[in-house]
């Protein structure tokens, strides 16, 4: 016991020395096979007491909106020592976070926070998609563990980089697709492994998104920027543009400079089920079609900077260790959905109630249907009783479980048994995000046009009408992150960033 108390005394001798040793201990204890050396809670402070040595120092980068989950139960046993948001008094929930943690240091610029908060163990990142990569790379290169909201990054190149940086620094990571922690996914995995519907050859996945304005030109407005909002920081790597409430704090998802559309919003929740249970890797090709909007006769909206009102994306995958046949995966958004397979009764919803979001996995001998997060899966086979698994989970309960997986993984250490329970570490989430974002690469390539739009009624009779060169199947070399049959599409593998935002 003497050595134990000496250890505790050493940890608390000075703040700087304490955290230097503590962070090293948190990172390496599991790898050394030592585990934690913690005084029992009932000895130090009675039932429910959490020893200081068993608490993490965490910060939220983006502490309003989805970043408000720092106020949730999963963080209650840790020390929230810093908050960061580009809009310190915005009406998107940041003021509630500041009230919840009045002693936490507050920052507008995350770089200032990372420079000054030397005691940090981990950060959550809940900013718009286009800043995920830069912020997460900065944090991980400082040895910090990170939880990043979905999609992991804005583009394929950034996802590949974050995967590599996480592995290099041996930090504990999690992408915020909380559905990966659902018991529904576990049940579907069981059905797939038992080959209850045979080999799976076709998958449908769909969502009712977008629920934000999309498919129209952004309105020209002359708005006054809120005084406290750091608009330059919000723009991050994107090109400089005037402040507009059409982007901040919510509707940025429908614009390619900042968001990743319906796929980025819901694809990581929905496509996780087939990708995980079937062990899908990089697709071999991708093609798409998109919905059109005509605000005037013969004048189709052409808005290459914005996401379309709806889309259908088709991906093909080679067979896997889980499935002995090639797979076609069809994604639909904007309210589009597939028709009923023969095995599913006409009165049954597809996926979830009202068929708003869902997945169909179609095999040789039946169909698996489930909602977003893999909730309430059903297995249909002709002439046999339908198998149904009821899940009691909600997005909120799954969010708590998902964050807790990450917290437990940090405390146990990189590579530990607890680490292996994390359902979306970057070694999985990175390649998975690349697959999801392939759909956006196809959609953006679909809108590449030579010349100017032709709105004339007789434009189809002209040989010059063939201006959309990317409207074909795009062949993908996943390992080298390259479209091999249409080079112009490769501009969407990464992005052009403003000075100071490269990583």
Describe, in short, the structure shown.
The protein has 503 residues and is an alpha/beta fold. Helices cover 30% and strands 16% of the residues.
Structure description:
It is a single chain. This protein is an alpha/beta fold and 503 residues long. It folds into two domains: 2-180 and 398-426, NAD(P)-binding Rossmann-like Domain (Rossmann fold); 182-214 and 261-390 and 433-492, Dihydrodipicolinate Reductase, domain 2. The chain has helices at 2-12, 15-32, 41-44, 94-100, 110-116, 129-140, 156-169, 183-193, 231-235, 261-270, 272-278, 395-412, 417-420, 426-446, and strands at residues 57-61, 79-84, 105-107, 122-125, 145-149, 173-176, 200-206, 285-290, 294-296, 299-300, 311-317, 327-333, 358-363, 367-370, 378-380, 387-388, 474-477, 482-483. A hairpin with a 3-residue loop joins strand 13 (358-363) and strand 14. The two termini are 47 Å apart. 44% of the residues are buried.
């Amino acid at each position: 016991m003497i050595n134990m108390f000496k250890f505790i005394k050493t940890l608390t001798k000075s703040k700087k020395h304490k955290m230097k040793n503590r962070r090293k201990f948190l990172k390496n204890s599991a790898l050394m096979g030592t585990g934690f050396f913690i005084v029992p809670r009932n000895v130090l402070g009675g039932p429910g007491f959490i020893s200081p040595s068993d608490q993490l120092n965490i910060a939220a980068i983006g502490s309003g909106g989805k970043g408000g989950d720092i106020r949730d139960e999963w963080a209650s046993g840790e020390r929230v020592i810093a908050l960061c948001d580009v809009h310190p008094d915005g009406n998107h929930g940041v003021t509630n976070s500041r009230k919840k943690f009045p002693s936490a240091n507050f920052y507008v610029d995350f770089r200032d926070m990372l420079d000054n908060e030397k005691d940090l163990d981990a950060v959550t990142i809940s900013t718009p998609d286009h800043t995920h990569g830069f912020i997460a790379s900065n944090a991980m290169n400082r040895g910090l563990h990170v939880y990043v909201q979905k999609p992991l990054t804005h583009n394929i190149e950034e996802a590949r980089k974050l995967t590599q940086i996480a592995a290099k620094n041996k930090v504990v990571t999690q992408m915020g697709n909380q559905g990966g922690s659902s018991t529904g996914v576990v049940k579907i995995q069981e059905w797939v492994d038992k080959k209850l519907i045979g080999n799976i050859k076709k998958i449908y996945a769909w969502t009712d998104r977008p629920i934000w304005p999309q498919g129209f030109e952004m309105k020209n407005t002359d708005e006054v920027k809120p005084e406290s909002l750091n608009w330059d920081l919000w723009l991050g790597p994107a090109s400089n543009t005037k402040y507009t409430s059409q982007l901040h704090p919510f509707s940025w998802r429908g614009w390619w400079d900042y968001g990743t559309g319906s796929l980025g919003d819901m694809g990581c929740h929905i496509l996780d089920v087939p990708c995980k249970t079937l062990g899908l890797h990089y697709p071999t090709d991708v093609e798409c079609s998109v919905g059109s909007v005509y605000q005037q006769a013969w004048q189709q909206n052409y808005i290459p900077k914005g996401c379309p009102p709806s889309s259908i994306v088709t991906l093909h995958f080679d067979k896997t260790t889980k499935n002995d046949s090639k797979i076609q995966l069809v994604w639909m958004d904007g309210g589009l959905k597939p028709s009923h397979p023969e095995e599913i009764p006409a009165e049954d919803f597809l996926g979830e109630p009202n068929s708003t979001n869902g997945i169909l996995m179609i095999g040789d001998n039946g169909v698996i249907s489930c909602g977003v997060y893999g909730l309430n899966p059903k297995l249909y086979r002709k002439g046999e009783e339908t198998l149904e698994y009821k899940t009691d989970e909600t997005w909120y309960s799954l969010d708590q479980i998902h964050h807790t997986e990450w917290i437990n993984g940090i405390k146990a250490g990189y590579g530990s048994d607890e680490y292996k329970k994390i359902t979306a570490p970057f070694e999985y989430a990175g390649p998975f995000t690349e697959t999801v974002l392939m759909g956006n690469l196809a959609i953006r390539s679909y809108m590449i046009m030579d010349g100017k739009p032709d709105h004339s009624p007789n434009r189809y009779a002209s040989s010059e009408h063939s201006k959309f060169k990317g409207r074909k199947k795009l062949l993908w070399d996943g390992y080298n992150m390259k479209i091999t049959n249409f080079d112009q599409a490769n501009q969407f593998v990464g992005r052009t960033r403003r000075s100071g935002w490269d990583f």
